[in-house]
Amino acid sequence: MAESKEIYDVNAKWDAYLDVGVRRFVYSSATGLLAGFLLFRSPVTRWASVAFGAGVGIGSAYSECSQKFDAVETHVSKD
């Protein structure tokens, strides 16, 4: 029987993870900026909401990427 071989491209994984990280950082920072302008008057609290949004974005990207990168892939061969 033919065995299926998967090619693991580490560079493609890192590119995908970098893309996810940058997107989530930018989107959550923009959301924090919008929320800061709508909810707060002080510039300090506005920047704090942007920083919080950026932290949430980086944290969620790190969490997803670490789960995918450390996942053990099992190969089951049917004999």
Automatic annotation (TrEMBL):
The chain crosses the membrane at residues 20-40. Keywords: Membrane, Mitochondrion, Mitochondrion inner membrane, Transmembrane, Transmembrane helix. It is found in: Mitochondrion inner membrane. GO terms for cellular component: MICOS complex; mitochondrion. Pfam families: DUF543. Component of the MICOS complex, a large protein complex of the mitochondrial inner membrane that plays crucial roles in the maintenance of crista junctions, inner membrane architecture, and formation of contact sites to the outer membrane. Belongs to the MICOS complex subunit Mic10 family. PANTHER family: MICOS COMPLEX SUBUNIT MIC10, MICOS COMPLEX SUBUNIT MIC10 PROTEIN. This is MICOS complex subunit Mic10 protein.
